[in-house]
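Researcher: Next sequence.
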Amino acid sequence: MTQQFDYDLVVIGAGSGGVRLSRMSAGRGARVAVVENRYLGGTCVNVGCVPKKLFVYGAHIHDELEDAAGYGWRLSTDHGQFDWPTLVANKNTEIERLNGIYRRLLEGAGVEIIEGTARLTDSHTLVVGDRVVTAERIAIATGGWPFLPNIPGKEYLLTSNEMFYLPQLPGEAVVWGGGYIAVEFAGILAGLGVRTTLIYRGDLFLRGFDDDVRQFVATEMRKKGVDLRFNVNIESVAPGERGYHLLLSDGSTLDTGLVMAATGRRPLTDGLGLDALGVAMDKQGYIQVNDDFQTSMPSVYALGDVIGTPQLTPVALAQAMVLSRRLYGDGQGSMDYKMIPTAVFCQPPIGTVGLTEAEARERTDNIKVFRTEFRPMKYTMSGRDERCLMKLVVDGDSDKVLGAHMVGADAGEIIQGLAVAIKAGATKADFDGTLGIHPTSAEEFVTMREPVAP
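Model: Next structure:
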């Protein structure tokens, strides 16, 4: 490291990846600064994973209250009253607490926090406001931002960012999109008593997930009152008597009190000056990097959602650990993007790891599929008509489990444990030889004996 620069490393973006890279690099002796123009913790902490999960918890309480009667609880007459501003205010308090933790972590590690918007002027220089900062290396970890289609009435659309700070809930809402954000927010709104319609242009939402999972979730969401409309799009939005008037691609119309667009995210690179410097990006705007997270400009690196790898917080954290180790540690480490577990916190939630059935069949003809569907024990007394799906995809030649998929309560918690085994190469025989914990839903993963018909 030379001393001709202000810092050894300047990280642009204090989200999950940026904070981890800054802290770990400073802990290894590098002089580090992080630049942030919004909030510490990035999307995940402020307008993503954390507040979304808190909203999911809040929405699911409605089901818990309904289920209570089957277990002998007699609730008071005001059961069912919900105050949205209270949930938002308490969520804000928790996020502010986390922001403070992130600040203390950075400052405790010796990282300087520079507040403002960064623009690169050359391979070692950036400008933040009226301050010029130089660094031996620069890392871009600016994440993504919601994308809005350019339709008439675009200005009336809300994104997930605004939903987390909505002053009041309407009586009815439309969620536009088919990804995990759309599906999760449709469940949140419906669980909080909002008459909810989900509109998606494709045949079925959650593209990329196992087809059985997608179909199963659609069935369960409809049971919970979400109006799913597939193969249709929104053509325009205008003010209406009940809030907003929507014209749909099939010629029909729809009136609602709110329209949330969850129509994708784009890499947040605006204003960084990358085009002028010739930093290579693909057609979608993602920064192109090599296996060392190095851009086409050798002193500039990038990681996280801005490079187009799986847009998950643990992925950004792992990338940051690898990059810090390679730059300021022993120079070792690499990323493995196989067998990444993930969850969708819809209602009921999804947990998944490994290959879908369709992906496995593309690789080999000899596939065995084990599938079970049942009503969880909890609901036998409450009377709730909610079912659980579990599925294993197995290589018929090696007996290795290639994928595990679940829809049901605690799916994310259960799949996290299975992910360790599957990552380690567990076979179906290993699953069969493992005793179940009874009575649990999870034990079904080790008691499925007969494959379903091809």
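Model: The longest strand covers residues 131-140. The two ends are 60 Å apart (CA to CA).
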